[in-house]
Amino acid sequence: MTAETADTAAIPAKAGPSLGLLRFAEAVSIPIGALVVSALLFALFLVAIGKDPLQFYQLIWTGGFGSSFSIQNSLQRAAPLILTGLAFAIPARIGLTMIGGEGALVLGGFSAAAIAIPLVSNAVPPPLTLLVMALTAVLTGGLWVGFTGWLKYARGVNETIASLLMSYIAIAIMNFFVEGALRDPASANKPSTMPIGDAYRIGSIPGTDVHWGFAAGVVLALLLWVLMSRTTFGFAARMTGGNLRAARAQGLPVGWLMVVCCAIAGAAAGLAGFFEVAAIHGQANASLVAGYGFTGILVAFLARQNPLAVIPVAILFGALAAAGGVIQRRMGMPDATILVLQGMMFVVLLVSETFYGRLKLFQPKATGQRA
Amino acid sequence: MDNALVTVLIAMLGGAIRVSTPFMFVALGETLTEKSGRINLGLEGNLVLGAMVAYAVSYLSGNAWLGVLAAGGSGIFLGALHGYICKLPRVNDIAVGIAMMSFGTGLAFFFGKPFIQPTAPRLDAIPLGDWTGNPALAQALQVNPLFFVGIALAVFMFWAFRNTRWGLIVRMTGDSAASAKAMGVSVDLVRFLATAAGGFLAGIGGAFLSLYYPGSWNQGLSSGQGLMAVALVIFARWDPIKCIFAALLFGAAGALGPSLQSIGISQGYYFFNAAPYILTLIIMIISAGSKAAARDVPGELSITK
Amino acid sequence: MTLTAISRRRLLKVGAAGLAASALPFGIARAQTNVVLGIVYVGPKDDFGWNQAHAVSVESLKALPGITVVEEENVPETDAVAKSMESMINLDGANLILATSFGYYNPFVVELAKKYPDVTFRHAAPLWNKDKDPANAGSYFPYLNQAHYVNGVAAGLSSGGKIGFVAAKPIPSVLSNINSALLGARSVNPNATVQVIFTGEWSLPVREAEATNALVDAGCEVITCHVDSPKVVIETAEGRGVKTAGHNASQAPLAPKGFITGAEYKWETIYKSYADDIAAGKTPPNFLVGGYNNDMLRTTPYGAGATPEAIAAADAAIAALVAGAPIYKGTLKDNAGNVVVDKDYDNYDPYLDGMTWLLEGVQGSIT
Question: Which chain B residue's Cα is nearest to C256?
Fold first, then answer.
């Protein structure tokens, strides 16, 4: 089936296939229309500051998708963003604004690198080591964000603020160990944990330069889409997100649902941290704090919290990051150019939310306009 | 050791006064916005853009206070944009806030490039502690006028929310849009104005960063202070006076790490540096969940539902 | 940036794409006539510090014939830097890559150098290992601690000898600057001390200002630093009425009253030599380090804070360093009482690259 069901399944399903088709058309054309509008607005901005918009968009294409190298560049950069996008999207479906993905990624990556130290020194086979590392990262991330979910449920602590604070604390914990007890003495000027070594590094997807984190992100996005739109759990979670009081009245285990959704989110971000360590750095250090958790928030919003839509949006963001370098090099524009473009896209896409259910084109003739 | 303790306490007092002002302005702005029933998570964007604009205008005009005003103006621009977009049906104000944060920061970085190098005229301080004869204390009591403006504003807001027609209208809009409508109040207009005014204050907070302390413009200037200030509002239970105390506490906690190192305690400095975050989290956990807490929340606020 | 530069790059791009696809060992031959220099910065290139020092130096190369410079700023030490460098190679035809941040080297520069053997990679830290690392990679690094030693000499004679040091992280390159500043100050004033505060981050303006204030409150008369952008530290110290010594780039204009002098890199010496080598068809040296003795450092012109004795002593110290006088010599203890130096060390001795101690006379701890 198609992606639109994720957004509409909470609405009583009296719809026929034609309504489904209309909804799908709406869910696809509004965001694309918004992207086009924001691109035009940004073109105006470029003209106003005396730059050539045609050259700009041509370079975005060249840098993001123009060649096999550029495509792989975009996909590689998208890999952590899929996972951190999911980390924001899943709690959002249950109504929680959880922005702790950054902290879970950092701690997940750190714990994976830490557990690898005794395994590598005892020559445990790489596949087993990587499995243990991945599980540790998932568990750490899950517990870290799950705890924030529990605070929300049990103590009523605002989850947005708490998860932000927890991210700062997570980074302090990582730095404390990386520069202290777990520091590899050889990592002189860049304090890091002991490297896992090339034999333990997870490679690229065969035939590409893209690491396995991308594949893992795609698979997890599919699984979570099934979970959220095709299972009782997902239905209960979305119902809680739609109307908390009604969900309670229905006797749904609201607190448990919240904690599990947050734990899933933390696990996804923790997994992103695992891939940063196992595929890229080979050790944990301050480079884990790269802002992927925060970019994931933008990705999830643009994807309207739909796990499947997270994939193309993350690729789009990866492509923008990849093209940002080309823009700097060829047009002499500052790196903040892409930030402005992203900000503009984000604002316009949010404005476009208001058109859902209000454009005549996508309304079935019988039912007319919905509020 | 007593001497060392005094050093740390004076440093924390000084830190509280120096570091707290941007938190104060952003938190007061957010309090006003949230009291009207809307949340603007994007004040970090206002803060950073305000810092850049203030520095640029101060440099170009030679007048730091003109820079402060211009920063407020840039804050109104972002705040009004937020307020206008949120007026549209089905638009999530938290999402718009995050979008404005990214948009405002991007604009500030993009247009701020030429202003990193120059030295702009800065705001002056009022020396309040020269009579003490203690240089450290005298330094701690070098106070920027904006600090007092912030406190006066908090007292005024506290009074105005209770005792003026405008204050009542804002609170009513925030507690129940339906009853505000029934009274003939334009909910959208009130929220639009409250968000724009909140944006103005956050912009001023940014001006303090670039024109007084630390008194310079660069891309790493804020390090999330606008986000933390929004957190302080919930921590301060939407009370302007408590916002002041929260900001002071946060500033003092931030001075803890460097001042402990200055008297020779440097073990685990990462945790001392993270003290403000840990402290805020602990207080939130302790204070949340109480009946009193639930009572202070504006009823229309999406973040608390 | 001129239009002709852009169109030249466009032409190059086509040529380079063909090169990369055919993967012929063609790059070196090409490099003799045309240099496409790609440089990556970890922060904004106008940060009044580390990145700016590089950007200013590379700017001076742009005017030279046969050189095209492509720059990318704010590139984090993640796979983003690998992809940025690779994109410079694939899309711009870069044949000389300068990676200017410490964390770029391993694994990113090393792995990319293996993948693109025809491209010359040079990294700004003494990390290249001729036994392990690819032959087309390499390192360059001026030992700034020599200039911090000179800072110490000038500071020791321009004040009572109490120096405050705002430092980012307790890593060897930072510790070396702190220790050298102390040794410089002690060479002219045996009672001199250096008090250090670590901020924990390379750039955190508010905490840097707090640290500066804490040091001044603790009685320091001169403030110097090792953070990415010293602007805030120098301006805050100037505002407090104490003297300052700079780091990375010139901060003299920021402190008209109290500026003594500053430790600066002279990257253009290195970049110019690379460009000359490539123009002459030679491969640039794999390992290029230096200091005052080979014109890789400079001392900021003395400011109003420097006393005449300080200027004389600092100039003498520079002359001695040019002649190869060691900084770490004799028997030195760390501030926990262990002997860490028991003989004279050459200023480029690898032992000093790995220091994990603060000398006796430095107040502060690295844990």
Answer: B119
